[in-house]
Amino acid sequence: MVCAKSVLEELKACGVTHVVGLADNSSAALMALLANDDSIRFIGVTREGEAFALASGLWIGGKTAVVVAQNTGFLESGDGLRGTAQRMRIPLVCLITYRGYEKMRRQSAKAEPRPWTIEEFSRADLDSAAIITEPTLNAWNVPFDFLETDADLPKIAKAFSRAERESRPVALLVTGDMR
Amino acid sequence: MRLTAGTMMTKDQLLKPLAELRGQSVVVTCMSVTRPWGTYSSSDLDFASADSAMGHTADLALGIALAQPQRKVICLNGDGSMLMTLGTLATVTAAGTKNFVLFVVQNDTYEITGNQEIPAAGRIDFPLLARGAGFRRVYYFEDPDLYRRTLPEMLSGEGPVFVAVRVEKGSEGPISRSVKEQSRYLRVSLAQSAHDLRKALTS
């Protein structure tokens, strides 16, 4: 688990002016901090696809936004991401919370890496949102890394550097609930 | 009940007066008004949401408005595009932006793919939806003279402002981005256009 307060401090250090997204259990602690923070403005959206377009508009207007979304919402955002931040070559960091990561990890540990079967997509002890998150990021050509513990916090600045250097969206997968 | 209009405006009647009054506003277009707008304006502050994400013009324009609170941002959205992301109406009002003017150009069709009817064509009450989402300044026009007379009021004062305009169906084909396009803002890539607008807004 990563500390929400430390994440917020890292975002400030990276010059973030706006966080755009939709809360979920994993990002709730960060959202609570943002509600009482004057230096970064939170813009709530009704569906995650909006977040990528809105964040792209903020960048065009001279601001630095971060998108925060659950992997379920990210999966819904395909064309929003593709047709705005990606197609427009906008440097944009996305924090994607990884619903179902733990269940998937437990199952993955029992087997060699392999394509998931259609039966596994419907199993109650697996979350299909999790099992297609990384393949989807790969298919959509979005580079990603993991935020698992506080030791990973420097990856936030690295993600910003890469996004800026390559003018592209870069994702960080938050594997547990922020505390 | 169909909310069929008695009269309708042409795109020219919609766009020409707006081009005359937009001043230093950013204007973001999409779909069937993209090319026509380019015949009236070639400003560095024009942006075509073409070759981009389906239905994500209003939220993109909202982002620009939030980043540039001292400048008016005018979005010319399509009715089909607005239906794709109706939630953006709530996002706009929740964001508290005061410099955003959101037009919905209502022709009841997906014009550039051959004028197929949008769902519930003729029954959608966009002004009602906008009011329901929290817009307080809401306008609806079928009459070009009333529209022209009211335009200065719509473009002044605090927003967000919502404007539904009923226009005739046209025959715009698919929008491309290439040197063959007449409109200046369609002759460069979407990425180039986005980066150019950022430069214009921040330098």
Any idea what the CATH architecture of chain A is? 3-Layer(aba) Sandwich
- Multimer state: heterodimer
Are there runs of chain B of 5+ residues with pLDDT below 50, and where? Answer: none
Mean pLDDT of chain A: 95
The strands making up the biggest β-sheet of chain A line up spatially as 2-1-3-4-6-5
Return the structural class of chain A. Answer: alpha/beta
CATH architecture of chain B: 3-Layer(aba) Sandwich
Estimated structural class of chain B? alpha/beta
Task: Characterize the overall form of chain A.
Answer: globular
Rg of chain B computed from alpha carbons, rounded to a whole number of angstroms: 16 Å
Name the helicity range of chain A. Answer: 40-55%
How many β strands of chain A by DSSP?
6
Number of domains of chain B: 1
Major sheet characteristics of chain A: 6 strands, parallel
Mean pLDDT of chain B comes to 95
Largest interface: A-B, 33 and 33 residues
Spell out the blueprint of helices and strands.
The complex is a heterodimer of chains A (about 180) and B (about 200).
Chain A: H1 4-13, E1 18-21, H2 28-35, E2 41-44, H3 48-60, E3 65-70, H4 71-76, H5 78-86, E4 92-97, H6 101-108, H7 118-121, H8 128-131, H9 133-139, E5 144-147, H10 154-166, E6 169-174
Parallel strand pairs in A: 1-2, 1-3, 3-4, 4-6, 5-6
Helix pairs in contact in A: 1-2, 3-5
Chain B: H1 11-21, E1 26-29, H2 34-40, E2 46-48, H3 57-67, E3 73-78, H4 79-84, H5 87-95, E4 100-106, E5 109-110, E6 116-117, H6 126-132, E7 137-141, H7 144-154, E8 161-166, H8 190-202
Parallel strand pairs in B: 1-2, 1-3, 3-4, 4-8, 7-8
Antiparallel strand pairs in B: 5-6
Helix pairs in contact in B: 1-7, 3-5
